[in-house]
UniProtKB/TrEMBL annotation:
GO terms of molecular function: symporter activity
Residues that span the membrane, as ranges: 7-28, 48-69, 89-110, 168-185, 206-230, 236-259, 325-343, 349-375
Gene3D superfamilies reported in the protein's UniProt record: Sodium:dicarboxylate symporter
Source organism superkingdom: Bacteria
Phylogenetic placement of the source organism: Bacteria, Bacillati, Actinomycetota, Actinomycetes, Streptosporangiales
Species this protein is from: Streptomonospora nanhaiensis
Chief site of localization: membrane
Keyword Cell membrane: yes
Name under which the protein is recorded: Na+/H+-dicarboxylate symporter
Subcellular location field: Cell membrane
InterPro entries: Na-dicarboxylate_symporter (IPR001991), Na:dicarbo_symporter_sf (IPR036458)
Keywords: Cell membrane, Membrane, Transmembrane, Transmembrane helix, Transport
A GO CC annotation given for this chain: plasma membrane
Length: 481
């Protein structure tokens, strides 16, 4: 049974899960029940969906720390490392700014949350300490401890409960500090960096296991949404989904080709070169899971030198999220404000732009953008119940978002390499083989290190199931930087 299921393409499994989830949600509504006393099927669907989300969130902290440290360490033997890193971050911010502007514009045009029939009183207001001005957001970047953890105690039903939460942005700050320190220490840090690379491979293996559960999680999340909110909400979520995909299409098929053309790069060659990573990102819904193939695409198809690609692509997999951290939170914030009847002012829109550009690292390359959405809604002061509502359609949206993310994560290294004069244009313009990659014998560039492509395992399976990150990660060139 399991072996037969594995032969079904992953995208087909997700689509089937959407249908099953909607069907089970309709059945759950027919069985009756209330919000305070749901029926057994509704409870089961909610448990399945929330468990899947919890598993994903569990992987976020180690992914952030290990991926950021490894990506920074990959620059330690590069002479112009500071300049390359600065150019990379600059273009990450530029594309994020363009994407979030598109997202806000589409949210105002489509108005996906209008006439949804939900009163603002239906949602609890977020905790007063969880949102505020941009100064409060900057203050939240300062780590409270080395693990980025905060503890809280609450009283519920007469009993005290204690919970631990992590701040993704604080973890980024901590990981950057450790990575820079490891580079400055020199050879004495080699055992630590070797451990970091090994630990990242292990974590990516666990991530792959969680990704394989995505169809099951989709059934629970979508089924519970249909039961909880009914068809009126499904219609609003449909308009929201259309707005998101229009924004993703504009970035992927208009913004990225224009940027490539402005830097003297062929948009057609870019698309044919990046297609293996885009395809895998669409079905796997994980930038981190797609990272080995994205890195291979950047080196072997787009002519980016290995020493730079091994920094830019892993770093982009944790911080460069035009789909998840720019378009999505912008449209989502406008949707939630309209859905619950909470008006937004010009200051709120500016806050959305600021958080999207600066805080994109919070997505950490995992399947879904729950952390970034929570950060945006909290900062603007919108009901956090919108997070749970939008998770219902997250599996549909995340495929397109991740495809856009990985396309940008491959484009920016190519742009920076072209600006710095280190790109292999012969390889960039070389014909692609049937597997989607430039053959190793095509236009070799002396000194670029592109003859040894990374991620050789995985791309052939891109149209059937997500690549196994642990296997692919073992072939990444992190140790050669």
């Amino acid at each position: 049974m399991l072996s037969a299921l594995r032969r079904v393409p992953f995208a087909v499994q997700v689509i089937a899960a959407l249908v099953v989830g909607i069907g089970l949600g309709v059945v759950a509504r027919q069985l009756g029940g209330t919000a305070d006393d749901p029926n057994w099927l509704a409870v089961t669907l909610d448990t399945i969906g929330s468990t899947f989300v919890t598993l994903l969130q569990t992987i976020v902290p180690p992914l952030i720390v290990l991926a950021v440290i490894s990506s920074i360490a990959n620059l330690r033997h590069t002479s112009n490392a500071a300049r390359l890193a600065g150019q990379t971050l600059l273009w990450f911010a530029v594309t994020a700014l363009i994407a979030v502007a598109i997202g806000i514009g589409l949210g105002l045009v489509f108005q996906p949350g209008v006439n949804a029939g939900v009163d603002a009183g239906a949602a609890e207001a977020p905790d007063a300490g969880s949102h505020g001005s941009w100064l409060a957001f900057l203050e939240s970047l300062v780590p409270v401890n080395i693990l980025g953890l905060t503890a809280g105690t609450a009283e519920e039903g007469g009993a005290l409960t204690t919970s631990l939460d992590f701040n993704a942005l604080q973890l980024i700050v901590i990981a950057i500090a450790i990575g820079v320190a490891a580079v400055r220490v020199g050879s004495a840090a080699e055992p630590f960096l070797a451990f970091t690379r090994s630990a990242l491979s292990v974590v990516l293996k666990v991530l792959w296991w969680v990704i394989r559960l995505a169809p099951l999680g989709t059934v629970g999340l979508l089924g519970n949404a249909v039961y909880s909110y009914g068809w009126t909400t499904v219609g609003a979520l449909g308009r929201f989904s259309v707005a998101i995909y229009v924004g993703l299409a504009l970035v992927l098929f208009v913004v990225y080709p224009v940027l490539a053309r402005l830097h003297g790069l062929s948009p057609l060659k870019y698309f044919t070169g990046v297609w293996p990573a885009v395809q895998l990102g669409f079905v796997s819904r994980s930038s981190m899971g797609t990272m080995p193939v994205t890195e291979r695409v950047a080196e072997q198809n787009l002519g980016v030198p290995r020493h730079y690609a091994s920094f830019a692509v892993p770093f982009g997999a944790t911080t460069k999220m035009d789909g998840c951290a720019a378009i999505y939170p912008a449209v989502a914030a406008i949707f939630v404000s309209q859905f619950y009847g909470v008006p937004l002012g010009i200051t709120d829109y500016l806050l959305i732009v600021f958080v999207s550009v600066i805080g994109s690292a919070a997505t950490a390359g995992t399947t879904g953008a729950t952390v970034m959405l929570t950060l945006t809604l909290s900062t603007v002061g919108l009901p956090l119940e919108g997070v749970g509502l939008l998770l219902a359609v997250d599996p549909i949206l995340d495929m397109g978002r991740t495809a856009t993310n990985v396309a940008g994560q491959a484009l920016i290294p190519a742009i920076v390499a072209k600006r710095e004069g280190i790109i292999d244009l012969a390889r960039y313009n070389a014909p692609r083989g049937l597997d989607g990659f430039v053959a190793d014998t095509e236009a070799p560039a002396p000194g670029t290190g592109t003859a040894d492509a990374t991620g050789t395992a995985g791309s052939a399976e891109a149209d059937t199931e997500p690549a196994e990150p642990a296997k692919a990660a073992g072939s990444t060139p992190a140790s050669s930087a």
